[in-house]
Amino acid sequence: MPAIVFRSHADSAEQWGANLKTQFPDIDFRVWPDAGNKADIDTAIVWKPERGMLRQFPNLKMIVSLGAGVDHIFADPELPPGVPVVRLVDPWMANSISEYVALNVLRFHRDDPDYVRQQAERKWNALPLRETTQRTVGFLGMGFMAGDAAAKIKPFGFRIAGWSRTPKQIDGIDCHHGQDGLERFLGRSEFLVCLLPATPATVGIISAKTLAMLPRGAYLINCGRGAHTVEADVLAALDSGQLAGAALDVFRTEPLPADSPLWNHPKVFVTPHIAAQTNARTGAAVVAENIRRVRRGEPPRDAVDPAVGY
Ligand code: GLV
After folding, report:
1. Domain 3-90+278-295 falls in which CATH fold?
2. For residue range 236-274, what is the model confidence (pLDDT) as tens digits?
3. 273 is an active site residue
4. pLDDT tens-place string over residues 43-59
5. Active site residue: 273, 293, 295, 301, which one?
6. Which terminal residue of the chain has fewer beta carbons within 10 Å of its beta carbon, N or C?
């Protein structure tokens, strides 16, 4: 019976081991670096594997990301060629992202940062309430998570726009694609939600140039990757008023360094990469299904295209 090697935090190893055991009672679950005979391993389940780790398993059939993103795996220049890399596509994680997006779109839409300040000053002052039907939430990246978040905030009445690398047609979403579509998409996105994968083509996409294409006073909600932003440009846009606020869950350097000006910027909400978290209970069922497929000799679901990195 082939074995699984797991590499992440120690407490999550315990949880994943226990949850996968409910799917495979006789599972051979090994926690890196105690991989035993490396030739036994057919599946690696990893978060931020160290360089060269994955090429050590001669019979590896699948690499599973312990997250929606796979950039932490492709960061290894010594990945074994031809072994499928699989994203964790867990509806519970998508729901968590949707909560984070709804929380931040709504708190900006309802001028919550102003009311928090006014309360501190004991100031009773009603600001005009804007109509959701006149405001557009734009999703940079139109994958599984963006689709879930878009569907969940649409009933409030917001207009929804989306941008992706390749053309998409999704009911109720004003879809744009490619370099040509980016300016048109940004021009209407009063709330810009980044849910892109981090690839060489998307690193630094939120820069002075693209921020200037947003309507003045737009809001940025980044739950993609820190590398999508040029942080100095985001700060400059906040200070100039081009951005009215930002909710940032991901950063170029994590943990966000103590001296980052983002920590105490009055227009910024900082959270420590928690918009979604991997969940061993819900995730194990998804991963187990892929392990079964691969052990039956079928290709896994949700494998990424290494040429584009997602
Ligand atoms: C977290 O950032 C993930 O990729 O799931």
Report:
1. Rossmann fold (3.40.50)
2. 999 999 999 999 999 999 999 999 999 999 999 999 999
3. yes
4. 999 999 999 999 999 99
5. 273
6. N
Q: Which of 201, 197, 142 minimizes the C-alpha distance to 172?
A: 142
Tell which atom from ligand 1 comes closest to the C-alpha of 69: 4
Look at the block and give the residue holding tokens 């010594």. Answer: 78
Query: Could you tell me which of 226, 228, 221 has the C-alpha nearest to residue 192?
Result: 221
Nearest atom in ligand 1 to the alpha carbon of residue 93 is 5
pLDDT of residue 175: 98
- Torsion over CA of 68, 69, 72 and 76, rounded to 10 degrees? 110
Q: Is 52 left (phi over 0), alpha (psi -120 to 50) or beta?
A: left
Both tokens of 237, joined, read 């846009």
Distance of CA 277 from the midpoint of ligand 1 (Å): 7
At 275, the pLDDT band (50, 70, 90 cuts) reads very high
Q: Identify the residues whose C-beta falls under 6 Å from ligand 1.
A: 67-69, 276
Domain 91-270 CATH assignment equals 3.40.50.720: yes
Q: Is the pLDDT of residue 10 over 90?
A: no
Residues of the chain with CATH 3.40.50.720: 3-90+278-295, 91-270
Instruction: Give the span between the Cα atoms of 287 and 295, in whole angstroms.
Output: 12
